[in-house]
Amino acid sequence: MKTYLGKMRGVRAKRDIPDVQDALWSWLGAVTGMGAICWLSTHWLSQHLLVVASFGATSVLLYAAPESPFAQPRNVLLGSLISAVVGVACYKFLGGTALAVTLAVSLSILMMQLTHSVHPPGAAAALVAVIGGSEITGLGWWYPVMPIGIGCAVMVVVAMLVNNLARHRRYPLHW
Fold first, then answer.
1. Is the Cβ–Cβ distance between 159 and 33 less than 8 Å?
2. Contact 103, 92 (CB under 8 A)
């Protein structure tokens, strides 16, 4: 028992001085990516929802941790789409119930792992499909396409453009 509990203590992390230049590149990516989605949502697709909460977490991965396996295009696109489909299916079959929420998140994780496309914000996309309210649930099977698919595609394109401007960054590492 002592060994088991000892694992939870962890060790003190050694943190370097924050890299201000890298943080500014992350900021530029996030402001450009989210700005593009908001602009599209307001001016081009004004009758359609294009901004969802999971895009905030996707922005962190794409622009602040572009080398992360979870930030690679396959994971962002496929993981988010699969999760959104799972979330919509759970809502269609079970409504906005606690069981639908539980299964949407857990099944999306299972499906992402089985398809080698784990993207943590994908589970949030599945959750939003169930609890997002009438504006989201009203989209039905379109939800994985728009906002999820189009929004993720825009953010991946912006990540490729912005991250590769910096000499010390490379995105994507793989597809």
1. yes
2. no
Cα within 13 Å of Cα(167), Cβ side: 1
Is the bond into 18 cis (omega within 30 degrees of 0)? no
CB of 155 within 8 A of CB of 167? Answer: no
65 vs 126: CA distance, rounded Å: 22
Residues 37-81 pLDDT 10s: 999 888 876 666 778 999 999 999 999 999 999 999 999 999 999
Kindly report the pTM of this predicted structure. Answer: 0.90
The amino acid occupying position 84 is: A
The conformation of residue 132, written as its DSSP 8-state character, comes to S
**Nearest CA-CA partner of 62 in 167, 126, 152:** 152
35: closest CA among 165, 161, 124, 168?
161
Task: Give the C-alpha separation, 163 to 34, whole Å.
Answer: 15
